[in-house]
Amino acid sequence: MIETIPFDADNVVGFRITGKLRGETLDAISASLEDKLRRHAKVRIYAEMPRFEGVTPEAVFDDLRLAMRHWRDIEREAVVTDEAWIRKITPLGHAMAPGIEVKAFATADREAARAWIAS
Description:
two-stranded parallel ribbon, STAS_dom_sf, Transcription Regulator spoIIAA, five-stranded mixed beta sheet, about 30% strand, about 40% helix, alpha/beta, about 120 residues, SpoIIAA-like_sf
């Protein structure tokens, strides 16, 4: 399931993702990203993942397509989760797309993540 998280900063796309990441979830993320990119040259992504249960194979390919299409359009990404393995692999996003600042935050640090993504 996906829920939009509003931000005062118009260049930030915010989501809360629970359960399994599916293709339709990425469709919603892509639509929001495209909408922001009509108004901004670069956008930032904020993702809370409180109960993440994995990714469907379809979503893996959709995610790769989305990343390939927009890696130059994304300036920062904040991932908020208590899943240790997600926080551990999050910095790999920077290695794969060096122009994007990527940081992982624990749920207790949600406000710090929101401040960082909007600054």
